[in-house]
Amino acid sequence: MRLTLYSDYSIRVLVFLTARPERLSSIAEISKAYGISQNHLTKVVHQLGRAGLVTTVRGRSGGIRLGRPAGEITVGEVVRLTEDGFDLVDCSTCVIAKACGIRSVLAEATRAFLAVLDRYTFGDLPTGELDILDVLAAFPDMRSPVAGDGCKPLPN
Fold first, then answer.
1. Whole-angstrom Cα distance, residue 51 to residue 37?
2. Alpha helix locations (H) across 51-101?
3. Beta-carbon contacts of residue 60 (< 8 Å; ≥ 6 apart)
4. Which domain of life is it from (predicted)?
């Protein structure tokens, strides 16, 4: 299973906001930190806001912050919100679909995948030895991966 860049960016926004719960952040600073287009992030933040995962504050000193405590937002919830569907294959036009049984196996695998994501909240994620914001600040030229490349490794 591969998540879309939209899901990737949504997760990144929430990780960023989780790392700084005491203050408002701007789309511009998140865009700069990750090297992601502000236009893309605006769309992501809009959907996250409609779902109540982020709160936006308008005005000169406005910005965005988590809409709920990080410990109440599961990774599974975000993935379900940002992905269109979870059918790993399209069996609707397959001539052997009724006889092969793979559809139920793949559905079980998808349920297991989502069950694991549901066990983790954004409050659980920043537990590494390095602070996320320190890592982002140390590599200002990091850019978002192109579709299909996955996350770029940090330099040694």
1. 22
2. 75-82, 97-100
3. none
4. Bacteria
Contact 54, 45 (CB under 8 A): yes
pLDDT, one tens digit per residue, over 10-44 is: 999 999 999 888 889 999 999 988 889 999 999 99
Residue with tokens 């700069």: 32
* Tokens at 137, concatenated: 């600040």
Q: Which domains, ranges and CATH numbers included, belong to the chain?
A: 5-83+121-138 (1.10.10.10)
Q: Is residue 114 within 8 Å of 104, Cβ to Cβ?
A: no
Sign of CA dihedral 10, 13, 17, 20: positive
Residue 154 CA: distances (Å) to CA of 24, 119, 140: 27, 27, 11
How many other CB atoms are there within 10 angstroms of residue 110's CB atom?
15
Q: In this structure, what token pair is assigned to residue 119?
A: 């066990």
Residues 115-153: tens digit of each pLDDT: 999 999 999 886 554 566 666 666 555 444 443 344 444
